[in-house]
Design a protein that fits this description.
Helices cover 31% and strands 20% of the residues. It is of the alpha+beta class. It has two domains: 256 residues, Beta-galactosidase, Chain A, domain 5; 340 residues, alpha-1,2-mannosidases domains (Glycosyl hydrolase family fold). The strands form ten sheets. The chain has an eight-stranded antiparallel beta sheet with strand order 6-7-8-9-16-13-12-11. The protein has a six-stranded antiparallel beta sheet with strand order 1-3-4-10-15-14, with no helix packed on it. A three-stranded antiparallel beta sheet has the order 17-31-32, with no helix packed on it. Strand 11 and strand 12 form a beta hairpin. Helix 4 crosses helix 19, helix 7 packs across helix 9 and helix 14 crosses helix 15. The longest helix is centred in the last third of the chain and has 22 residues. The radius of gyration is 25 Å and the shape is globular. The protein starts with 35 loop residues before the first strand and ends in a 5-residue tail after the last strand.
Length: 660
């Protein structure tokens, strides 16, 4: 059975910065591929990160994109657009209508007919590039244009090799010293008319228009973060003399293999489409950011220094989002890939002094804390990686647990004050409650790794530190609350106030994040019975919110309010585990009822997700929930089990039952 036909890559794309149904892009890309491709419908909207609108029948070209999120924006991008007649030097000027229903957008294949120039543009991805072909249906002079997106561009055409070389230094919010993305485009069968090829603009407006002989053209594309020579080498290695359909067949096989790692059966087409659309999302990020040199060695660009070093590297993931669900999913269905990713993350620590937090091409650090701690702990507990790797990872964990960088993008914010007071004081750091709870969990992860490696002194010290979450519990209200340096809490407390001491939520969403010690959390409430009453109160309290901490309404507030799950904002990561707390403390029927209702009402291949999908994190939540198991605490090899949405579930070809 083939699963690709069930995948809707546009799931979650019907979004806006003011309201998210996923904030995703319809990416044609190999699993974890370094190069992704997507139609660009508009950029001059005031919301530059949102460059694809599924309902707008306009395409400005196919963007070679690395954007991991509209909030993080873009790097190393090129816009590839067929044109004829009046030629535009920008995407907006070159835009063409296309028929949405007649276009094909799949993980392995993209086809759009540009009505303005009567051209079919077909594309299929390779790991670090693509193959494309153009078919024009008029007698006008045809061009293939490479238009600007972000940064300064340069181009040159080598007539002897029939290769176009280009580069851009464009990147957004990260640290990326001397960054450049290089592109090499090889044209086949003498399809280029050099007398018609011309260049326009310079720097951030530079573009090139490649003259096409006749009505058809075919080419191959490869990129590099190292050099144009490396891009050319990649072109030869990944494409060689392979025909377009052969490359497409390889892309299809690659995706089918990944989708088959979990096999489910159902007579409900929509349910299958939602499941396998989420499976597709789970294999997009993080992306490979390493290359293979002419000697077959793995090499990568180092954003911190601008150097090129040996080894693997991965980008485009934020651990505050993905650590909770995506990496635990990989521990089941992508262990080899997980191991390689971990090598890359640890390499980042070796090269820049801190383990990654939110990496685009370089460190962005846009979300708080260092939840990569639980990515490492989960790998160690599940025996993914090597002892040597774990030893180095532990050094990185200990470093960010006890030191703060002068650059707030790196490490734990508030690490020094947390160590001094046992919590992060609210008057010293924003989001102090989340920083404290994440640090306590991170300390437990450090203890877990140290224990596995036999370091009993470290284990004992950090296991004790992991109890620091208790320092913020207010028994009079039943919430985690911020304290100042003297230990005082604010007098004017309202659990519906967002921001301030909390990250993307209020006390309701953020007070229950103690995955490593749920028993201890229950004790703070006076036992499981009282804890269950608090959970009941959470789900029964209307989804009211106050904007004080943010000064205005953010989209996560609206998304919580649009569904009927009380103060459980399943639209965002802090609430992911909350329904499963019922199951953990023995209220399995309540857990199953809530989870099933969320899966059936809030996730749809057509309508999207209940909030930001965030690089596979929400897709992984749905995958786990629909197969009836949830990793309540990454770093522990245990799950909360519920009744699945599907029967006859196989993981890696093996039928599963609860508890296996």
């Amino acid at each position: 059975m083939k699963y690709l036909p069930y995948v809707n890559i546009k799931m979650g794309t019907r979004s806006h910065m003011k309201y998210s149904t996923g904030n995703t892009l319809p990416l044609t890309q190999l699993p974890f591929g370094m190069a992704a491709f997507c139609s660009q419908t508009e950029v001059n909207t005031g919301c530059e990160g949102w460059f694809f609108n599924p309902d707008l029948p306009v395409s400005e070209g196919i963007r070679l994109t690395h954007q991991p999120s509209p909030w993080i924006r873009e790097y190393g991008a090129f816009l590839i657009t067929p044109q004829s007649d009046i030629i535009g030097n920008t995407g907006e000027a070159a835009a063409s209508g296309y028929r949405i229903r007649e276009s094909v957008m799949r993980p392995d294949y993209l086809k759009i007919r540009y009505q303005r120039c009567d051209c079919d543009f077909e594309l299929t991805p390779t790991e670090r590039g693509c193959a494309f072909r153009l078919s024009f249906d008029n007698e006008r002079q045809a061009y293939l244009s490479f238009l600007p997106v972000i940064g300064n561009y340069t181009y040159r055409y080598d007539e002897e090799k029939d290769i176009l070389y280009g580069s851009t230094d464009g990147h957004s919010q990260d640290e990326a010293k001397n960054f450049k993305a290089y592109i090499a485009v090889r044209f086949l069968d003498g399809c280029i008319d050099t007398s018609r090829t011309y260049y326009s603009g310079e720097g951030e407006t530079a573009c090139v228009h490649i003259g096409i002989k006749g009505k058809k053209a075919e080419g191959r594309v490869a990129i590099s973060y190292v050099s144009e020579e490396m891009a050319e080498n990649t072109l030869k290695r990944e494409c060689g003399e392979k025909a377009f359909d052969e490359i497409r067949g390889l892309a299809e096989d690659s995706w089918e293999e990944k989708l088959h790692r979990i096999e489910v059966k159902s007579d409900d087409y929509d349910r299958l489409a939602t499941f396998y659309s989420c499976m597709y999302r789970a294999f997009l990020f993080p992306r490979k950011a390493y290359e293979i040199d002419k000697d077959g060695k793995e090499v990568h660009y180092v954003p911190k220094t601008g150097n090129v070093n040996n080894g693997v590297r991965y980008t485009d993931t934020g651990f505050w989002d993905t650590a909770r669900t995506l990496f635990p999913l990989y521990s089941l269905i992508a262990r080899d890939e997980y191991g390689e990713m971990l090598r890359g993350f640890v390499t980042d620590y070796v090269e820049c002094g801190y383990l990654p937090r939110w990496v685009s091409i370089g460190e962005v650090g846009c979300m708080p804390s260092t939840l990569i701690d639980c990515v490492i702990a989960d790998a160690v507990v599940k025996q993914i990686g090597t002892r040597e790797l774990w030893e180095t990872a532990l050094k990185g964990m200990l470093h960010h647990a006890n030191n703060e960088s002068s650059d707030r993008r790196y490490g734990r914010n508030g690490a020094i004050s947390y160590k001094k007071y046992g919590y992060v004081p609210k008057n010293l750091q924003k989001e102090s409650v989340n920083l404290t709870l994440d640090a306590a969990y991170g300390d437990w992860c450090i203890a877990t790794v140290a224990g596995e490696l036999g370091y009993e002194d470290i284990y004992e010290e950090y296991m004790e530190r992991s109890k620091n979450y208790k320092n913020l519990f207010d028994p009079s209200t039943g919430f985690m609350r911020g304290r100042d340096e003297s230990g005082r809490m604010s007098e004017d407390f309202d659990p519906c106030i967002w921001g301030g001491d909390y990250t993307e939520g209020s006390a309701w969403q953020n007070s229950f994040w103690v995955p490593h010690d749920i028993e201890g959390l229950c004790d703070l409430y006076g036992g499981k019975e009282n804890f269950i009453k608090k959970l009941d109160e959470l789900f029964l309290t209307p989804p009211k919110y106050r904007v004080h901490g943010y000064g205005g309404e953010i989209h996560e507030m609206r998304e919580m309010a649009m569904v009927d799950f009380g103060q459980c904002a399943i639209s965002n990561q802090p609430s992911f585990h909350i329904p499963y707390l019922y199951g953990y403390v023995g209220e399995i029927e309540k857990c199953e009822d809530v989870v099933r209702k969320m899966c059936l009402e809030l996730f749809s291949a057509e309508d999207g997700f209940p909030g930001d999908e965030d690089n596979g994190s929400m897709a992984a939540w749905y995958i786990f929930s629909s197969i009836g198991m949830y990793p309540i605490c990454p770093g522990k090899d245990e799950y909360v089990y519920v009744k699945p949405l599907f029967e006859n579930i196989k993981i890696n070809g093996k039928p599963i039952n609860k508890g296996e």
